[in-house]
Design goal:
Oligomer: single chain
């Protein structure tokens, strides 16, 4: 209840702040009126990206003095034909009192895209005739339906633009450089324009080449494939970190951080801690950011490792005085942010890497035997029995009866073997900063259901969900999906099919007060209390001097004593959390840390393993079997 109240208070503060700013700046131009209700598009995403979520923000005003209304905004209004997976209904429903204005955010995942244009408005469950004009944002996605990098419906890797969000307070253009084009000739005696002719085979000596002047040294700058998108005023920035998840980097000033509301600043910290790259120009107040490592160069540049991400602070906002290594560091950080999304997987590859059920094959032999017995029973045996009884006319009802019994037998066998409910598997790695009370989680979750889940899948507002289903068009079957944000992130329909495993890569950042209470007794022994909400199967703790202690099988809420481990003191960690984020499979890095915690723990930190999922919700709430495992790296407050 404390966590939900804190999140709700942040949302209310952000909504009130946005309304005050709009009152100051004046009403936006794009407004559509339906009687008492006015719908305005406040902001929409710009620029092409190929990961993360797009955020569309609507201001819905109720000009009625007393009567409240229930308003639903839904994208799209006009559904176009698509041979690829698509979202047919992206919606959110709010209740607005008289003379009130609500800020309604709609978040669209990069995959699959929206299959149409414009916004449908429902007022008190009545569909309005005229839509709100809107064209959903383009994406450099993974299939033929998407714009950009695709070839006959298959994803073709290659260079793409890095999408960077730049603050409005940065008026000066960031310098960019492009490599000169290289002309390669070969085997042509006549040569090419601007190139010397190739010597003839009869020539005794090739002509001496004139001395070439050294090319001028290029001016330092960022690569040419960087696309800067100008942000809204910081007063209108989103308070949900998912709105920033599509950006490979964000550039702000120290003054921007001061002007941001606490909710917006927290969302920005969450973006960094989940793997983003933040560049701050000028003096920066980074209080509240989880810091796991920091380096400062001789010229005052700060490189801060925060969770799975990175923050770079430049003391100088004059780009002309930056060195080439500064631009290289920034470009490398932005390129790293996009790396986990460069290799999308199809359903088969995902199940090979992360199986949710042991066998998803079709029982060919069993079906063949069943069909053979069915044919014999409904044909020869049925005719012989009826002929002996001299009741051949009964064939009109015995044939459908045998068919019905066979169908019921097949259905009953399926229920006995798999049940009504499906299966869930989750593997996560969580960074738990007990100083900021934020938990940052990456991992995988997969579901399998013998019947299509009637209630779909449920995730929280703070969870990024990436389907592992590379678009292959009609060959893999087209999915028409529905996503509802009214109460949570509800993947209502189309995301899971009966007897087909569905895999999702997930990222999450949220406020959590779960922790492990560790303290030293008067006699020098180390004890703990498990407040993670799940049984700890194994925990390794590094004290302030780097000495290691461990414990096993500690029930939720139970105290325990930790025993010293006969290993050397903790060395300097050889792998940062940023490197775990960059791995092709996030779980590989987590498994490596769990197998050798002494190589990664810092003083005053611990590594705990639990056979549960305390920091990621169960997407399939009525799963018959749950197979969950989590690795938690915690940083103590003191």
């Amino acid at each position: 209840m404390v966590e939900s109240a804190w999140s709700a208070s942040l949302r209310v503060a952000a909504h009130l702040g946005a309304c005050l700013v709009l009152a100051t700046l004046g009403a936006p131009a794009r407004a559509t009126t339906y009687g008492d209700i006015e719908v305005t598009i406040q902001s929409e995403p710009k620029g092409k990206s190929h990961h993360g979520y797009f955020e569309y923000v609507f201001l819905v005003s109720n000009h009625s003095g007393e009567r409240p209304h229930t308003v639903t905004v839904s994208i799209p209004n006009q559904r176009g034909f698509s041979g690829w997976d698509h979202i047919r209904d992206l919606r959110r429903t709010v209740r607005i009192g008289g003379n009130e204005t609500a800020r309604v955010e709609l978040l669209q995942p990069d995959s699959p895209p929206v299959g149409g244009e414009d916004v449908t408005v429902f007022i008190d469950e009545r569909r309005q005739e005229h839509p709100v004009p809107l064209r959903p944002n383009a994406t450099e996605g993974r299939g033929g339906f998407y714009y950009g990098r695709s070839s006959y419906g298959r994803y073709t890797p290659g260079p793409s633009e890095l999408l960077i969000l730049k603050s409005r307070s940065i008026s000066k253009e960031v310098p960019r450089v492009s490599l000169p084009s290289v002309v390669v000739g070969g085997g042509m005696s006549g040569g090419m324009a601007g190139m010397p002719a190739m010597p003839s085979r009869k020539s005794a000596k090739p002509p001496a080449e004139p001395p070439r002047a050294a090319p001028p040294k290029p001016k330092p700058g960022l690569p040419a494939n960087v696309d800067f998108q100008l942000a809204e005023p910081v007063e209108l920035w989103s308070h949900n970190w998912l709105a920033y998840s599509r950006y490979d980097g964000i550039v702000v000033t120290g003054d921007d951080l001061k002007a941001m509301s606490p909710a917006v600043r927290t969302a920005l910290w969450q973006y960094v801690e989940t793997g983003g790259a933040l560049l701050v120009l000028g003096e920066a107040d980074l209080r509240g950011l989880s810091v796991t490592g920091e380096k400062t160069s001789e010229d005052g540049w700060r490189l801060i490792e925060s969770g799975f991400g990175r923050c770079i602070v430049s003391p100088d906002d004059n780009f002309d005085r930056w060195k080439d290594e500064h631009f290289q560091l920034i470009a490398a950080s932005w390129s790293e942010t996009v790396k986990p999304w460069d290799n999308p997987r199809n359903s088969y590859d995902a199940n090979e890497r992360f199986p949710v059920v042991e066998d998803i094959g079709i029982p060919i032999k069993g079906l063949f035997v069943l069909m053979f017995l069915f044919a014999v029973a409904i044909g020869p045996i049925n005719f012989l029995v009826l002929a002996r009884k001299k009741r051949r006319i009964w064939i009109l009802w015995t044939t459908p009866a045998i068919s019905l019994v066979t169908c019921l037998a097949v259905f009953g066998y399926m229920l006995l073997s798999e049940g009504w409910e499906g299966q869930l598997r989750t593997e996560t790695f969580t960074l738990l900063d007990e100083g900021t009370h934020r938990a940052t989680t990456v991992g995988w979750t997969a579901v399998y259901s013998p019947l299509t889940p009637s209630n779909g899948l449920h995730f929280s507002y703070e969870t990024e969900v990436i389907p592992q289903r590379m678009n292959e068009g009609r060959r893999a079957g087209v999915r028409s999906c529905t996503l509802d944000w009214s109460r949570d992130q509800h993947l209502a329909s189309g995301w899971v099919e009966a007897r087909v495993p569905a895999h999702f890569k997930v990222r999450k950042s949220e406020m959590r007060h779960k922790r492990v209470n560790i303290h030293r007794e008067a006699d020098g022994k180390v004890s703990m209390v498990n407040a993670l909400g799940a049984e700890i199967t194994l925990i390794t703790y590094a004290d302030e001097h780097g000495r290691l202690y461990s414990g096993e099988h500690i029930a939720a809420g139970a105290p325990a004593s930790l025993t010293p481990k006969n290993v050397p003191e903790v060395p300097q960690p050889v792998q940062t959390m940023r490197q775990v984020y960059l791995s092709s499979n996030w779980l590989i890095g987590a498994q490596g840390i769990a197998s050798a915690p002494q190589r990664y723990l810092r003083p005053n930190s611990y590594l705990a393993e639990v056979d549960d999922s305390p920091f990621l919700e169960d997407a399939l709430r009525k799963a018959r079997t749950r197979k969950c495992h989590a690795v938690i790296m915690g940083v103590l407050k003191e």
